[in-house]
Specification:
The protein has 15 helices and 13 strands. By secondary structure, it is an alpha/beta fold. The strands form 2 sheets. A 9-stranded mixed sheet has the order 5-4-1-8-9-10-11-12-13, sandwiched between helices. Helix 3 crosses helix 11, helix 9 crosses helix 10 and helix 11 packs antiparallel against helix 12. The longest helix is centred in the first third of the chain and has 15 residues.
């Protein structure tokens, strides 16, 4: 297994090796939710039938009466118009490009749902205590021509879509470069998305095991409902919850996100998002180790239990208050960077949701993110072959050595120097990680386990 990266601990504090510990299971058995095929039986009969474990297992696995475990993805669905450029265009100029301009379905939530659905179709989850079997996207889609394109392309990608059709479709013009990208967006249906557009009964249906909110800042109309939906998902379904904030175009980085952190199981963001939400200034174009560490420390202080930060082509880190993990990436040729973060989120959730294994989540996340740079847009389903190839390529990246996390300002200088050495080019370019995660789980791309 991949080696986890742990911060310095006091002498009295025991070492926590999460990567090698079996997930803790509750002593109480989960409640089996029945569908309408048992609606004719009375409540006492339900209790009698399901009072013994063998009957619960029989009802679920043989009779097919249990609802399939589902990841519900809530958030934006855009139409992406992608232009591949070398440099940003100048005003009063006409920039010629070599590649055709492409139109694809996009948006953080839509892209994440596409890649999660693809992973469910092409990989087994035999050894995961809580495997999930399907993914549903909840959004709002315009009633115009652009909305028709989004709905059609979403269906083509194999995603189950639950969306209200109304208003003008959100459209995003993506200027995609070799190392970065920029966006020009008409929010439309994305900004208008609200609780009224959601089929809450379906969102919180039996079998819901995880609720993922994507593009929190983009979906401003949904923000007031998020705390209530999170609370219901946890109380009614025992579901875990994750959030991808994305960029706040207003620059305020408010919107109630900090108040949600204690109720969120996983916060997934890039370096700048993490620093901006935490109120940490970044001196350069990319964050330093100390800036990342300080941002994560502040997010923990506000109640976030698990923070995952992507590092672009260098990989990703994840941290609880007790432990840090690092997964490097082997850099590869870039075709388009659009949707890489969404593919990472899908991979992380696929690896983590069923196992609660953070390193497993990072392995899948980095492999999917690396595979995504080889396609145009973020909504083309990744093949098992491309994800496997990136896992094997990442086996050539050196295991990260342990570093101490700065816990106080006084310790910051020495910890920063050590952290910068950890993220040095030498450490990020040669070595290995345990990316053999479930190579035996690979399935033919056209096989659907459901």
């Amino acid at each position: 297994d991949s080696r986890s990266v742990e911060p310095r601990r006091s002498e009295s504090r025991p070492t926590l090796e999460l990567a090698s510990v079996e997930p803790r299971r509750s002593e109480s058995r989960p409640t089996l939710e029945l569908d309408s095929r048992l609606a004719h039986t009375s409540a006492p009969q339900h209790r009698m039938l399901l009072s013994f474990a063998p009957f619960r297992a029989l009802a679920t696995s043989l009779l097919g009466l249990g609802s399939p475990s589902t990841v519900q993805v809530v958030g934006d669905a855009y139409l992406d118009i992608i232009a591949k450029i070398d440099e940003l265009p100048q005003w009063d100029g006409d920039t010629a490009i070599r590649s055709p301009i492409e139109t694809v379905a996009g948006g953080s939530a839509l892209n994440t749902a596409v890649q999660l659905s693809a992973l469910c179709r092409t990989r087994r989850q035999r050894d995961q205590p809580r495997p999930f079997r399907r993914c549903v996207l909840h959004s709002r889609v315009g009633s115009d021509l652009y909305g028709e394109l989004v709905a059609a392309k979403t269906r083509e990608a194999g995603v189950t879509l639950s969306a209200r059709r109304e208003g003008g479709q959100g459209v995003c013009i993506c200027l995609s470069g070799r190392r970065d990208r920029a966006f020009v967006s008409f929010k439309g249906s994305v900004a208008d998305l609200s609780e009224a557009d959601l089929d809450v009964g379906r969102l919180l249906a039996p079998g819901t095991s995880h609720l993922h909110f994507s593009a929190y800042y983009d979906c401003s109309g949904l923000q007031p409902a998020v705390p209530r939906l999170m609370a219901r998902a946890k109380a009614e379904r025992g579901a875990s919850v994750s959030i991808v904030p994305q960029t706040d175009a207003t620059g305020a980085w408010e919107g109630g996100l900090l108040e949600l952190l204690p109720h969120t199981d996983v916060l997934l963001c890039n370096q700048r998002e993490a620093a901006s939400i935490a109120g940490v200034a970044i001196a350069g174009r990319r964050a330093t180790w100390y800036e990342i560490s300080e941002a994560v420390r502040r997010l923990h202080a506000r109640g976030a239990p698990l923070v995952v930060v992507t590092l672009g082509p260098d990989g990703a880190v994840a941290a609880t208050e007790q432990q840090w993990w690092f997964q490097p990436n082997q850099e590869r040729a870039v075709k388009d960077t659009t949707g890489c973060g969404d593919a990472f989120a899908a991979g992380f959730l696929f690896g983590w949701c069923g196992s609660r294994d953070v390193q497993r989540g990072l392995v899948y996340g980095c492999a999917c993110g690396a595979a995504a740079v080889g396609i145009t847009g973020g909504s083309e389903p990744l093949s098992a072959t491309s994800v496997n190839a990136c896992m094997r390529r990442n086996e050539g990246v050196q295991r990260a050595r342990e570093v101490r996390t700065p816990r106080t300002a006084a310790a910051g200088a020495s910890a920063e120097a050590e952290g910068e050495a950890f993220f040095s080019e030498e450490n990020l370019s040669d070595g290995r990680v345990c990316a053999e995660a479930d190579e035996d789980e690979d399935e033919d791309e056209d096989e659907d386990e459901d």
